[in-house]
Amino acid sequence: MKKTDSQLQHDVMAELEWEPAVDHAEIGVAVNQGVVTLSGYVKTFTEKLAAEKAARRVQGVKAIAEEIKVRLATDSKMADHEIAKRIVDMIAWTVSIPDDKVKVQVEHGWVTLTGTVDWYFQSSEARKAAGRVSGVIGVSNLIEVKQMPAPSDVKERIVSAFKRQANLDAAGVTVTTDGGTVSLRGNVHAWNERGIAERAAWSAPGVTKVEDHLTVAY
Q: Is the distance from CB of 211 to CB of 197 less than 8 angstroms?
């Protein structure tokens, strides 16, 4: 049975309260026709991402409008050059990231990452590393991925991911590519299946963008 907006709001708030990485006290949740808007304040950029991820786990959520702001404690403010140095160090310590191919720029706590890597997960790991540094209020990830994805490879990864998670059926998902962009179309049975398909698509080499046109058939 389809959830009402009030039920979705209750479930999202419960999920935020249950998520240990999130201090839910200053996060507001509003729902309009299945679209969830998150607002309020958190202490770190990583906590902001965790709140969005928690909301996406709730069945019945159609989309997320994320308006949470990072409010740093006075003693956690750092100079931009100090933030940049810590991010560069964290990238260098992360074996999966080719540190010589990633450039870091920081302006008023906002980080911009540029460069070129071979795999999307390397770009993703660089963004995560930047988000963990104290003083960061946001990250613009402009790192490019060189290789071009193959539709057959992306489809195979989605099928494998579905099989690993309760033998879900990926037969309803079709995959097309245009350069580094992957488009997903078809039907899935729940919001979390859309997430599984998206993550599997992102795991393919060369993917720079995933367009999710999947329809959730409750």
A: no
| Overall average pLDDT of the 121-146 stretch | 86
- Residue 29 lies in domain: 5-70
pLDDT of residue 155: 78
- Encoding tokens for residue 214? 């999947």
The total of structural domains in the chain comes to 3
Instruction: Name the pLDDT band for 72 (thresholds 50, 70, 90).
Output: low
Can you give the CATH number for the domain in which 133 is found?
Answer: 3.30.1340.30
pLDDT surpasses 60 at 166: no
Tokens of 172: 């309803």
pLDDT in tens, 95-124: 778 878 899 999 988 999 999 887 878 888
HEC states along 117-136?
A: ECCHHHHHHHHHHHHCCCCC
Based on the fold, state whether residues 93 and 132 are members of the same structural domain: yes
> Which of 145, 169, 192 corresponds to the end of one domain?
145
d(CA 51, CA 42): 9
